[in-house]
Prior knowledge:
The protein has helices spanning 12-21, 57-74, 105-122, and strands spanning 5-7, 30-37, 42-43, 46-55, 79-90, 94-102, 125-131, 136-140.
Amino acid sequence: MKKSFINGPIPPEKISNSITHHKHKTNIGAHDIFLGQVREDIIDNVKVVSIDFEAQEELSEKIIHEIREEAFAKFSLTCLHIYHSLQNVPVGELCFYVFTSSPHRDAAFNATRYIVEEFKKRVPIFGKINLSNGSYIWKENTSK
């Protein structure tokens, strides 16, 4: 099973390296990328400053693997990468990265959406939303 969790923010270099490493795969005609970023929401007039992500890693990795296998079975994919942050991710930084490759764009577009929605519904990830006044709120993954 491929490891999907990264400690801290997802570095932009990871995204550019993914693209670069696929240029030799000449059967690929399309890539699609989803990037999730920590928003500076306002909750009860207080700004979000970061999120500390936690997961039941063993169970989560198993579910992510299932989603990956389902996506390969449903869509004509050549390649697929799924990464999510653990630990602290400040506002403005990336926390979720899905990269799909296929011979044609429809498969890449549809697979990316499927993966993101299934991930949000099924993977047990929790976020401690840290606020600028020092307080925090716990949030569970949702399909919103």
